[in-house]
């Protein structure tokens, strides 16, 4: 949980600094901030769900270590896919 809060804080800090340096308007800052936070939450949700399902299946078929490996790999790929799709659908301004 603390890592999620830290990630959101770092996203906010990045966009706030860009806003204070007049690199973007307030509306663009809010839109980019919303996009990044929602993207983070969607990517984490996809990774948890897909990784959990793959890990559970592989764990039942081949054992604990296979389940852990499959869960990590599928979770990573799911998060990467979500971030890639969101990047194409909603590019930063």
Can you describe what's shown?
With 93 residues, the chain is mainly α. It has one domain (2-29, 42-89). Helices cover 88% and strands 0% of the residues. The chain is built from 3 helices and no strands. The two termini are 29 Å apart. The model has no long low-confidence stretch (mean pLDDT 92).
The oligomeric status of these chains comes to single chain
What pattern of helices and strands is seen along the backbone? HHH
C-alpha Rg (nearest Å): 17 Å
The total of beta strands comes to 0
Helix count? 3
Mean pLDDT across all amino acids: 92
Give the overall shape: elongated
Major beta-sheet overview: none
Structural class: mainly alpha
Contiguous low-pLDDT stretches (5 residues minimum) are none
Percentage of residues assigned to helices: over 70%
How big a fraction of the residues is strand? under 5%
Overall tally of domains: 1
Spatial separation of the terminal alpha carbons: 29 Å
């Amino acid at each position: 949980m603390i890592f999620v809060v830290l990630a959101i804080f770092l996203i906010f800090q990045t966009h706030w600094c860009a806003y204070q340096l007049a690199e973007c308007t307030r509306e663009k800052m809010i839109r980019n901030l919303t996009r990044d936070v929602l993207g983070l939450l969607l990517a984490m949700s996809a990774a948890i769900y897909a990784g959990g399902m793959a890990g559970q299946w592989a764990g039942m078929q081949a054992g604990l270590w296979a389940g852990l490996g499959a869960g990590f790999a599928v979770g990573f790929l799911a998060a990467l896919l979500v971030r890639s799709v969101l990047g194409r659908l909603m590019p930063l301004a």
